[in-house]
Amino acid sequence: MFRKRAPVAALTLLTTLLTGACMSQQADDINKPLPRKSRAESLAWAKEYTTAMAHYAEVKITDDPAPREHFQDCVGQNDEVPEDGRYTLTYAAYVKLGEDQHIATVRKLRKALEAHGVRITGHTERPKTTEAILYGKNDKEGYFIIADSVNPPGTIRLSVSTPCFLPPEAKQQHF
């Protein structure tokens, strides 16, 4: 009975994650209020998102290489450097998989992402070297996705990058 419920639960989780879990789209107005999320909330969301990506690609995230998180200060469209704590997060998790399975795995992931509103901005397959590269973006929520073959050989990276967030307690700086 659990096996029948697992796909429904996973689909519900992926739908929530792929719709950005309440992320807001940023407008062109430089001083429009930014979406608010703590770094801990962003990191938890990114971990869940990459886990859902792995689920739909039918692969398992590994600890070797270990997942990587990189928080970075946001820089404005006109190179404004804010001091209010706004940030972006890029999170990458890794999968160990035979190189001969990379292309099929990334194709499977692409199909799931497209079904959930992610626009694929680039997809390259290199059968001679058994590499696959996928770039995507959720235009509504502003996050980016990468799934690609990386080193060490036999490794696929599943990565998500958030839009600019302002910590909940911060006062937004205006320019």
Topology:
Blueprint: H1 2-18, H2 39-57, E1 61-62, E2 68-73, E3 87-96, H3 102-115, E4 119-126, E5 131-138, E6 143-150, E7 155-161
Antiparallel strand pairs: 1-3, 2-3, 3-7, 4-5, 5-6, 6-7
Overview of the structural elements:
Helix content is 29%, strand content 28%. The chain is of the alpha+beta class and 175 residues long. Strands 1, 2, 3, 4, 5, 6 and 7 form a 7-stranded antiparallel β-sheet that branches. Strand 6 (143-150) and strand 7 (155-161) form a beta hairpin.
The geometry reads as elongated
For this entry, what is the oligomeric state of its chains? single chain
| Gyration radius, rounded | 17 Å
Number of helices: 3
Element-level helix/strand string: HHEEEHEEEE
Cα end-to-end separation? 56 Å
Helicity level: 25-40%
